[in-house]
Structure formats: C-alpha cells, structure tokens
Amino acid sequence: VKVKIPFGNKYLDAIFSVPKKKLRYGVILTHGAGGDMNFPQLVSLAAYLAAQGILCLRFTCKGLNIAYRTKAYKTVVEYLKHSDDYKLSGVFLAGRSMGSRAAASAIHQLSQDDDSDDFIQGLVCLSYPLHRPKLQSKLRDEDLLFIRCPVLFVSGSADEMCEKQLLEGVASKMKAPKKIHWIDGANHGMAVKGRTEDDVMEEINVQVFSWLRENIELDHK
Q1: DSSP annotation string for 81-114
Q2: What is the DSSP string of 153-192?
Q3: Cβ-contact 112, 48 below 8 angstroms
Q4: How far, CA to CA in Å, does 4 sit from each of 10, 33, 37, 75, 82?
Q5: Per-residue burial over 180-204, b = 16 or more CB atoms within 10 Å of its CB, e = otherwise
Q6: How many CB atoms lie within 10 A of CB 110?
Q7: d(CA 120, CA 162)
Q8: For the segment 172-193, what is each residue's pLDDT rounded down to a tens digit?
Q9: Which residue segments constitute the domains of the chain, with CATH numbers given?
Q10: Residue 138: is its pLDDT beyond 80?
Q11: I need a labelling partner for 53 at 20 to 30 A (CA). Which of 16, 27, 34, 87 fits?
Q12: CA dist 21 to 6, 27, 54, 80, 81, Å?
C-alpha cells in the first residue's frame, strides 16, 4: 500500500507491506545514504516480515544530513503511531547504514520527550556505519550509548565502516540489551564472495525475524 507522509511542506514516499493476519507490532525501515526504500535488502526484509505477520512501513528520505534524516524518521514514527488504519501496540525502528544511524538518533531524541511512552520497542541496525572507512578514531556511537530499548546489529565481519572489535567495544558499553549477528565475510553492502545476494538476504531476514519474535514474546510475558 503506497502512502505519502506529510513532512514540513513536502511529502515522504512510503510503502506498507501488510500481513494477512493482523498483528500488534510493526517495523519501520529506511535506506542508507544512497538509494531509496526500494533497496533490495529492504524490499526482501519487508516482504519476509509481512509474511510472518509483522507490518512493515518503509520510506524514502534523500537528505544526506543526519539531523534532517532523523527529523524525517521521527515524523514517520508519529504518523504510524496515530494511524487509524493500523492500530499497533508497538513498533521497532530499523534502517540500513545511514538509515540505522537516523533510527538510533530518533529513538534517543524521542526518549527524551516528556510524553515518551513505550511505543518504540527496539532498534534494528543493518550495516551500522560506526566510522568512516579508515577513520576508526571517530566513532558514531553517541546515540547508541543512550538507548535503553533492545538493539540488534546485523553487520558484515569485513565491513569497512564497522570494524568488528570496535562495534563489540561499543556494545559492551551500551546500557540496552543488545545482540550482534555477524555475516561472515560480508562487506558494508552485505556482499559475500561465493554467496548469492538472495542467500545472504535470507540469513539477514531470518535473524531479524527471530530477534523480533523473541522481543515481542518477552513483552507479552
């Protein structure tokens, strides 16, 4: 279902992947610095999650400024929260690369609001860009350290923007419950020598869904 989400004096293009059975939880997905919401990994994940009964809303925001992208993400969260078509108990924020930075920043900012509630259930970071290539001294970890909700990282062990030891070091300092799933040999784009793109995407999809299900079940207890 295609929608246009009001954002200032313009609109954000977005698509709902709607499950056949109504579930109480949803996932918001957005892309990295390049591309848009039709990036193959996002399309694949949205279709997989919807088939498992989880509503997915993916959106495009072309700005390369992280503050602008974060503002757009917060707008999408509010849109879904107040949607009459989809009454959700909670939502997980997710993104690829720069999109995961925007998601983390949105969670940090929304958690500081006086009226913040538990609508946001967790964060999924696909290829989180912890640092620029070959610039490991400047880590983009400021939002991660403030987050309290559960976090899943899915990263390639050969990601040139997320050195394995550095992400594990940041994770050890985080106060949130967290899990890291390493895609063996994958680079920042999740390409792995000797494996097809579909094969890698299936591994990502299964990992994300099983983590979501775990956290939804914990919430129900």
Answers
A1: HT-SS---SEEEEEEETHHHHHHHHHHHHHHTST
A2: EEEETT-TTS-HHHHHHHHHH-SS-EEEEEETT--TT---
A3: no
A4: 9, 21, 13, 12, 15
A5: bebbeebbbbbebeeeeeeebbebb
A6: 19
A7: 25
A8: 999 999 999 999 999 999 999 9
A9: 2-219 (3.40.50.1820)
A10: yes
A11: 34
A12: 28, 15, 9, 18, 19
Report how far residue 92's alpha carbon sits from residue 151's, in angstroms, rounded to the nearest whole number: 10
DSSP3 helix / strand / coil % (the chain, rounded to 5): 35, 25, 40
DSSP-based three-state secondary structure for 76: helix
Reported pTM: 0.95
What confidence tens digit (pLDDT) does each residue in 35-87 have? 899 999 999 999 999 999 999 999 999 888 999 999 999 999 999 999 988 88
The alpha carbon of residue 68 and the mean position of all alpha carbons in its chain are separated, in whole angstroms, by: 17
